[in-house]
Amino acid sequence: MAATAAQVPLSALRGIPTIDQVGVEERAARFQTRSLKRETKVDGLLLALSMLDLTTLSADDTPGKVRQLCAKAKRPSPEHPEWGSVAAVCVYPNMVATAAEALVGSGIHLASVATAFPSGMSRFKERLSEVKWAVQEGADEIDMVISRGAFLRGEYRRVYDEIASVKEACGKAHLKVILETGELQTYDNVRRASDIAMAAGGDFIKTSTGKISPAATLPVTLVMLEAIRDFHETHGIRIGMKPAGGISNSKLALQYLVMLKETLGPDWLDPDWFRFGASTLANDILMQLEKQHSGHYQSPHYFTND
Amino acid sequence: MTSKTANAPNAFRDSIGYAPAPEGADHFEVKKRYQLFIGGKWTAPSTKRYFETINPATEKSLAEVAEAGKADVDRAVKAARKAYNTVWSKMPGHERGKYLFRIARLLQERAREFAVLETMDGGKPIRESRDVDIPLAAAHFFYNAGWADKLDYAFPGRKTAPVGVAGQIIPWNFPLLMAAWKIAPALACGNTVVLKPAETTSLTALHLAELIQEAGLPEGVVNIVTGAGETGRALVEHPGIDKIAFTGSTEVGKLIQRSIAGTDKRYTLELGGKAAHAIFDDAPIDQAVEGIVNGIFFNQGHVCCAGSRLFVQEGVAEQVLNKLKRRMGSLIVGDPLDKNTDIGAINSREQLDRIRLLTAAGKKEGACSWDAGQTLPRKGFWFRPTLFTDCAQSHRVVQEEIFGPVLAIQTFRTPKELVAKANNTPYGLSGGVWTDKGSKIFQITSELRAGVVWANTFNKFDPTSPFGGYKESGVGREGGLHGLMPYLELR
Q: Considering only Cβ atoms within 10 Å of each terminal Cβ, which end of chain A, N or C, has fewer?
């Protein structure tokens, strides 16, 4: 990935634009009317597969389960190794060591959620030390949550400072900042939180933990993509985007990619700059790729469940 | 860390648009030749003349259409009068409503056919004919069908009666939608009609006539005479017409007013426009940019209420312009039948010439022209979405209706300046305001002299909402409750 995102002082964030709900939802719906055929569709699916953060974030996760997920990440389709691997595996901190071992030499990134995921309701000291531990265990990407309570109280300085401290604790690991947009609720809040997270040093901004409904939506992601575009234009710093949760089929994933392509352009159509946080999306993509390859839909039994 | 896929070619990432995704046109028949629809029958024109209608995206001929002469118009008006006297004016409202509901449902059933035909004949992108024109046309029939048996309640304390035979002349920018817009309220109120579609886009009106036959509408209630200006003139001047409904240019609107002066013909005129579209510095900028694009590039700018004069508050002018240019660069111009096309073909060579003439005048007068340089197809009539900066009120691109994908941009400093400039036009059809502040919306919209004003959106249409202009943009309202009045005697 590119150089670590530099910080921009909070005071530099003036004139955060307002968002019109009706307008942004209409615009997002418009991307859904694009019609993808033939090579555009196949290559879009391959791109989506390469952008996956294959995720397991359950209280019943075990080393066995995580090792299986890593195997899937390395070779999603045993019959078609040419379809490549996913971008990363995303696990809880106590599963990082297992995953790191399973992924050695694969080139697949290892992401760990941290900072008292998903609520973040813990002492900041503990949240920071969790980040450090996950990095020590072998995570090269950290998915942190912001303090939504502080944000909603208008304590933007605190939110900013926390992110900046977590970024520091990450060291060389990349930081994805989860806004949990389902709790921020308004698009104006999403935009403001995006700007704060980018300025404070987040390498990626991410919609959701996946534990709150609604998780990622097209309009929320559009607001964040536009924030990334403006930030890049104003400060010259590129930030990545990760919608997470609720993206379970290929059609929707392709619609996200259409939106990405038409909002940020081809430079962002790359796993270094865009990720899908999803657990069941992989098999649907494989099923669609197989359909494009063979001309027939295959039974779900032909796709591995890990 | 480097990406494994970054260097591999990828059609999704590397191509500017998407692989072709054309809508099929093989599920219905375009006839070689279309006759006139008079008294419920297809009849040859007395002129024995037929004119070609072409696909403006390919310049290929689609069909031949009959040219109605004076005698044909006379037959059509007589058929409409007979149907009015013997059937339609006597029919109870709820019975009339049934026919209109039936037409609306048939339109929905055959929506794909109508959308494809509209796109082939007129050049508009299939996305728009499929998502806007045809659904809205059906919605107008549904809406007016509902009024048919409730007219006495629509105007409390007054009795209603139909007017008689309506002569309706419609433009080429929304062919089927305008036909629905005219026919539906007329029929709901108990009138019969003679409709003349525009000569470049007659086909969907003629297919609507087929659909009307299928719906079993009594003969002569709807008559369709095709032809150009002369046919329109014959219709306007016919003594048997009780009401004229015209949508088209201000120039022709004035001719109509002259020609019917001294008669007791009623009229509504829906004419040109040069709408002011204002972006304040507290506007939601990204959505406003989208609104600007929808405002002027919808239907290639062939929209009488298009937001063709953009006013941006100086503090955000540079930002808005940059974002607008980038967005214009992402507009896909090309085959109108492709589902991914954003901007289709210009409707006719004549219109393309007019757009070229006015944009050339704009450059000559010192305004600065910009477009995103999309590659245009070699055949057909095309014009790239274009904007003009450094415009002054005195420029022709600011004063005259271009009726094409051309935006003239000016800046303003204060609300007062905006209102003065926005109203400084002979037109007054529509306008738009973008601001995050509710009180400003109410203040500015009440000061704009325009029939339709949108706030934080643009080019939104609904059958329940009246539409019409001030000043040289027209007389009367269509749509909503107001749209019934021109078709009723209120006592």
A: C
B314 vs B410: CA distance, rounded Å: 9
CATH superfamily, domain B33-271+471-490, is Aldehyde Dehydrogenase; Chain A, domain 1 (3.40.605.10)
Q: Which has the closest alpha carbon to B47: B66, B26, B28?
A: B66
Q: What is the pLDDT of residue A12?
A: 86
Among 3.30.930.10, 3.40.190.120, 3.20.20.70, 3.40.109.10, name the CATH number for the domain at A23-291: 3.20.20.70
CA distance B54 to B423: 38
Contact call for residues B179 and B137 (beta carbons, < 8 A):
yes
Are A269 and B10 a contacting pair at CB < 8 A? yes
The C-alpha R_g of chain A, in whole angstroms, comes to 18
- Please tell me which residue of chain A has the smallest CA distance to B9: A43
Question: pLDDT digits over B406-422, tens only?
Answer: 999 999 999 999 999 99
Element (H, E) at A160: helix A156-170
Model confidence at B241: pLDDT above 90: yes
Predicted confidence at residue A254, as pLDDT, reads 98
Q: What is the mean pLDDT of chain A?
A: 95
Measure the CA angle with vertex B443, ends B441 and B444; round to 5°: 70
Kindly tell me if the per-residue pLDDT of B5 is higher than 60: no
Could you give the ipTM of this predicted complex? Answer: 0.94
Q: Mean of the pLDDT values across residues B135-155?
A: 96
The whole-number pLDDT of residue A3 equals 38
Instruction: For chain B, positions 281-340, list CB contacts with chain A under 8 A.
Output: 282-288, 290-291, 322, 330, 339-340
Q: Tell whether omega for the bond before A271 is within 30 degrees of 0, i.e. cis.
A: no
- CA B328 to chain A, closest CA, distance in angstroms equals 11
pLDDT average, residue stretch A161-189: 97
In 3D space, the residue among B235, B238, B93, B222 whose CA is nearest the CA of residue B152 turns out to be: B93
Whether residue A4 is predicted with pLDDT greater than 70 in this model: the reply is no
Q: How far apart are CA B132 and CA B144, in angstroms?
A: 18
Q: Give the DSSP letter of residue A7.
A: P
